[in-house]
Amino acid sequence: MSALEIGLVLIGFLLPLILLGLHIGVALMLLSFIGVWLMRGNFDLATRLVSLTFYGGISDYIFATIPMFVLMGLLISVSNVGKDTFDVAEWALRKVKGGLGVATVLSNTVFAAVTGISIASAAVFTRVAVPEMVRHGYQPKFAVGAVAGSSILGMLIPPSLLLIIYGVLAEESIGRMFLAGVIPGLIMALAFMAMILVVARLMPNAVVVPGHQSRIEHTETIVSAARKLVPLAALVVLVLGGLYSGYFTPTEAGAVGAAGALVVTLLRGKLNGSNARQIIRETGYISVGILFLLIAAGMYSRMLTMAGIPMEVGRLIGELGLGAYGFLAVYVLLVLLLGMILDSTSILLIVVPIAAPIAKTLGLDLIHFGIITVIAVEIGLLTPPFGISAFTVKSSLDDDKIKVETIFLGAFPYVLIMLAVLALIALVPATTTWLARGLM
């Protein structure tokens, strides 16, 4: 067998191994090891590749970004900043039809700017927004759909763990990836809010239980609302302002953000011995898991290059005459299908090492390509049967009457909006590259 044939056979084994329960990182490393061994006919060379990958795979300073932003997100999640943000948005939109749905999206948008983890957003706002919406007569399906749908903003609006992982895999600047996510994230958030307002006006029974009359009373004032938003606004300005002005590197921005989140959590009296240990433990679990996956992806990428797979696939696309947009259409469809059975990180690890070199050969900007990839991957968080955001909402709910099927149905309009925004961004690259190329 040729090196190309060996590589293709091993790729064919990858998905079945994952579906059988083998950890994605272990599967990538195992198949990469076997691939190098068979292609070069040298067991010692394959062993040396493993050791070199482990030693050099995550030794770069930039990888410290991951635990810093994870720690910041977890600290913010326990500080009640999310609840305060929702309270202020609820007060500001209390007279708007569907206002609590818009408040949920708006809160998730702001919260995303300091967490970078969709699952954290889903967990926080399930506990904060869903009970409040149900209490005021909103349909349960609409309530859980709004939370699940808008939670994906945490992986698009910077800082975002998926943008960091893509930047590492595609060897693109993480700072530029963060900048590239700003405009698409805002477009997505505005599209979600517009959809809620239109549905609330044209199909009010889909939003509010028929015949229910509820007035949202608040004792908030402009001063008290502003006071509640100060901690979050300060963190956003500190982290993103320092990063985009060039004053901080992404790693330094993560460290400053984690320190700022710690101060906020301490000042609010939300940190104690028990949850401090849990936060440190979860930071370690999440960070080590991601870093191990990146090591495995590095080895997988080397094996693919050795087999010549990206070059061969690129040549095949050229012969078929698909062009850049034809390739994008096929690629997005593949990612959407994978999103139904795999988690976001696993999809990136599998497809980016193959697709990024091809995209570059076809003249696509890898930053633009990265945002398209992340949006397509994020749609998988809302689609059955895997749909991890939907399952996070379900596990965070204190209501057995709401089934996971209800959450998927409630989130479906958001999937349609995401597909429309994805098409817009694919056709208008400037939505991603204007800030990324212009400011850095």
From TrEMBL:
Keyword Lipid biosynthesis among record annotations: no
InterPro entries cross-referenced by the UniProt entry: DctM (IPR010656), TRAP_DctM (IPR004681)
Claim: Disulfide bond is one of the keywords in the record: no
Domain TRAP C4-dicarboxylate transport system permease DctM subunit, residue spans: 12-430
Transmembrane segments: 6-39, 60-82, 102-130, 142-166, 178-200, 229-247, 253-271, 283-304, 324-354, 366-391, 411-436
Superkingdom to which the source organism belongs: Bacteria
GO molecular function: transmembrane transporter activity
Protein function: Part of the tripartite ATP-independent periplasmic (TRAP) transport system.
Subunit structure: The complex comprises the extracytoplasmic solute receptor protein and the two transmembrane proteins.
Family to which the UniProt record says this protein belongs: Belongs to the TRAP transporter large permease family.
Name under which the protein is recorded: TRAP transporter large permease protein
Taxon lineage: Bacteria, Pseudomonadati, Pseudomonadota, Alphaproteobacteria, Hyphomicrobiales
